[in-house]
Amino acid sequence: MNSETTQAYYENSRVARWLALASISISTFCVSITMSAVNIAVPAIALDFNANAILVSWVPTAFLLSNAIFLIPAGRAADIYGRKKIFLTGMTVFCVSCLMAYLAPNIEFLLVTRLLQGFGGALAFATGLAIIMSIFTRENRGSAIGFSAGTLYFGLSCGPVVGGWFTEHFGWRVVFLFPLVLGTMSIVLILLKLKGEWKNEQRGKVDYLGALIFAIAASCLYIGISSVPGMLASALLAIGAILMVFFVYQQTQCEFPLIHFKGIIQNRMFSRSLMGNICIYWSNYPFIFLFSLYLQFIRGMSPADAGQIMVLQPLTMAIVAPIAGRLSDQFEPRLIATTGCLIMTCAYTILQFLDVTTSIIMICMAMVIQGLGFGLFTTPNNNAALSSLDKTRYGIGTALLNFSRVSGNMLGTAMVLLLVSLFIGKVEITPTQYPALFRVVSIALAVSFFMTLSGAYFSHSRGKVLAT
Hints:
- The chain is an all-alpha fold.
- It has helices at residues 3-11, 14-49, 53-81, 83-102, 107-135, 138-169, 174-193, 208-227, 231-253, 261-266, 268-298, 303-310, 312-330, 333-351, 360-387, 394-423, 434-461.
- The chain has 2 domains: 3-194 and 258-461, Up-down Bundle (Growth Hormone, Chain: A); 208-257.
């Protein structure tokens, strides 16, 4: 099917559109459930491998770093070579890496598999939303994005429960086996139900040199931040900063750049949406990761019990996101997204009073409020941002949106790694370390409070856009 035939096929068949959306959403669910399930399994992984706090912190971080490095090249490649092709490649890599993680003999090998999972996830995340944007028209695009976001958050909500249950009854390795089965099913469904292909008629080139420079720069910056203090950390930060400046210069001189910086700056709607994404996801990831440690270590809960509490936030997001997406088709997305940011601020205000005796009811209430705000923010933000782009740029636009999400997560986890390094160090987390761990949690929550306020500013200041 050529591009015209593909477009006509989906425009004339509502069933085909929603079957395609379901195919993409199942894959999204597969990746997202793995991300959240692994967070619950981290303490069990640490005990099994006798790993110190720094190495354990890299279990979720390795995925994020790899994901961030490959997202933008993946988006560019998808626009050139085909979004469906890149999407399927990503899911295949993700499934293979899940099998490798299941068989991991030590913590170092497990971290390598997490890097591969991040790579596969980058190929999938950089293309899935772009395919949805290509299939659905503006009139129902928000609803489709909301449905996809709902499956993402449903995966995140199921992850703590599934991960906690598997870890407690069968061991942490099964946490990686479950998505292998699910991912294989999704690949088969995509091959059968996702018809056609989407790519630019005028094919350019992928800037591999720029991708390499960016990968080294991002790695140096991230590892440097997480290793502070120390001479090595300072050297890595300096190298990373220099390379990032050089990357920006190289992109302005390249014939086929990965990122058109000038175009992004000129597109206020898109650029402010990216900044809002960074702030909100920065606030969220430390909240999710550290609360898992807080509930299991400091409050002494089992993985399954902790998972039942952690599920409240993403479950609320899963319920709210499709509703917010539909609302963004009818009303100004800026107002909905900004309201979501401010609601998240209320949740972090409650959590400023967290201590070792805080009632579970208050914790659950904060989880629900945070999920409500997050669900109201994400779908309208993505809908407004991508609707401001030409359809030939959906791949790289989706990649940049996901990159802003991952960048926020990376900044949040870098902050966590820094705090862990400063207050706990390279030792196992034992009861003698619990006061230091709680201090890490308290500082991270205070920073998250200010990040949600910053997200509200960027969301509101991007200007008025009335979805039609």
